[in-house]
């Protein structure tokens, strides 16, 4: 991929050498000497390292404590148990969509607007490391064009909180932060120590992140042409959609993905990502993603959960540039969950090709859609990660599994007890 730059290209701040190189490291080298559960959020690599113990979600999950500070309460029963506390749920897209964006370009457009209107002095976001498409390089963007140049997902571990050192050294007081759930947890946990006048937190959903070399391995396993993939997503039709440089779309059934070639889930996903309970980024001011929006992805609909007064301010800033539609929800996610719990206890062998095609057809025809699909994915991640913590890091459960997880999964308590011979919720 060419890295030549036009004379009119936006100025890119020169990152510290460590951040420019760290994204390219293999997991073993990158996380060497770290705790067993580490998502490399960036707190430990900058001057805020002394705050690690009070901020790290894998040392002490303070999500429910932070919720009470942000909202004056914790999650109510219903969708809040899965989606987090929110005031409004909207399905929307930029009109027109931003070219080359992962979806419609809402996240980078919002960051650029904040700088254009003078509401912030900088935006912490994630560019691509030089010479790569997906290796994440955290930056402090000071112009709208610098933010726009970061469009496109980099589904890899990114130490974005390291950039807070630059913010403090530059004397900036008004910033926006774009990040994932574990990063936002750490940011919220030390927010009062940062001395900021204004902080906007734009959350992106995150699940099963990985390092850049492991992402490359994944693409080599799943795609016919891994070097030309520009976007990929796990979609509601139970297929991975991979967009290539020539605009073609490659579709791979979930059931056709041979995880064994990657060494299983632990072979590609860091233990921290398998111990995370905040796919929905519940501590942000608003979360912008795609999973609850309707198909097809070519129409580029997104969804947002507006969580706080500041989140409502952010959406109002974006609203003149978007079109909206009503959310959809279809199917019944609860029908398949007992089978999923059985599979967690005893993973099945990979089925023969004809059976996989039949399963994929049934999933597309009768599986959950829209908001119900989002609910199903979150429930599965909560169940899988709870079981991973219990099997691999049981002594940490009380510190890193928030109480809302057990409430969200309570409807499956009988099935869980039958399969695993223990209660879903721990004793009081």
UniProtKB/TrEMBL annotation:
Task: Show where the Coenzyme F420 hydrogenase/dehydrogenase beta subunit N-terminal domain sits.
Answer: 94-164
For this protein, what is any one GO molecular function term?
oxidoreductase activity, acting on CH or CH2 groups, with an iron-sulfur protein as acceptor
Per its UniProt record, what Pfam families does this chain match?
FrhB_FdhB_C (PF04432), FrhB_FdhB_N (PF04422)
The Coenzyme F420 hydrogenase/dehydrogenase beta subunit C-terminal domain is annotated at 173-316
Q: Which residues form the signal peptide?
A: none
Superkingdom, natural source: Bacteria
Tell me the InterPro entries matching this sequence.
Co_F420_Hydgase/DH_bsu_N (IPR007516), FRHB/FDHB/HCAR-like (IPR045220), FrhB_FdhB_C (IPR007525)
Q: What is this protein called?
A: Coenzyme F420 hydrogenase
């Amino acid at each position: 991929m060419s890295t030549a730059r036009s004379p009119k290209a936006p100025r890119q701040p020169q990152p510290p050498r460590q951040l420019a190189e760290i994204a390219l490291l293999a997991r073993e080298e990158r996380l060497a000497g770290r705790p067993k559960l580490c998502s490399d959020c960036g707190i430990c690599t900058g001057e805020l390292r002394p705050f690690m113990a009070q901020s790290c979600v894998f040392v002490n999950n303070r999500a429910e404590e932070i919720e009470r500070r942000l909202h004056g309460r914790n999650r109510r029963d219903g969708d809040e148990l899965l989606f987090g506390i929110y005031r409004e749920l909207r399905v929307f897209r930029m009109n027109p969509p931003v070219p080359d964006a992962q979806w419609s370009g809402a996240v980078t457009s919002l960051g650029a607007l904040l700088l254009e209107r003078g509401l912030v002095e900088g935006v912490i976001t994630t560019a691509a490391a030089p010479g790569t498409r997906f290796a994440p390089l955290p930056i402090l963007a000071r112009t709208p064009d610098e933010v726009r140049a970061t469009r496109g997902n980099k589904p890899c571990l990114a130490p974005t909180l390291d950039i807070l050192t630059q913010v403090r050294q530059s004397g900036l007081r008004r910033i926006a932060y774009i990040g994932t759930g574990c990063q936002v947890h750490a940011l919220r946990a030390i927010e009062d120590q940062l001395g900021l006048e204004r902080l906007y937190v734009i959350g992106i959903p995150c699940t099963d992140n990985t390092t850049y070399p492991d992402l490359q391995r994944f693409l080599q396993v799943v795609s016919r042409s891994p070097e030309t993939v520009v976007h990929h997503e796990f979609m509601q039709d139970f297929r991975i959609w991979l967009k290539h440089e020539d605009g073609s779309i490659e579709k791979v059934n979930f059931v056709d993905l041979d995880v064994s070639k990657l060494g299983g889930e632990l072979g590609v996903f860091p233990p921290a990502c398998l111990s995370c309970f905040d796919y929905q980024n519940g501590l942000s001011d608003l979360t912008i993603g795609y999973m609850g929006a309707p198909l097809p992805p070519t129409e580029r609909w997104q969804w947002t959960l507006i969580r706080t007064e500041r989140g409502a301010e952010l959406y109002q800033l974006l609203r003149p540039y978007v079109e909206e539609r009503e959310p959809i929800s279809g199917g019944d996610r609860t029908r398949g969950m007992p089978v999923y719990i059985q599979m967690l206890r005893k993973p099945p062998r990979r089925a023969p090709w004809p059976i996989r095609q039949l399963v994929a057809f049934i999933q597309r025809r009768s599986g959950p859609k829209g908001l119900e699909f989002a609910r199903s994915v979150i429930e599965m991640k909560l169940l899988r990660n709870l079981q991973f913590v219990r099997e691999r890091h049981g002594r940490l459960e009380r510190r890193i599994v928030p109480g809302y997880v057990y409430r969200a999964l309570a409807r499956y308590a009988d099935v869980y007890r039958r399969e695993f011979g223990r209660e879903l919720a721990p004793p009081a």
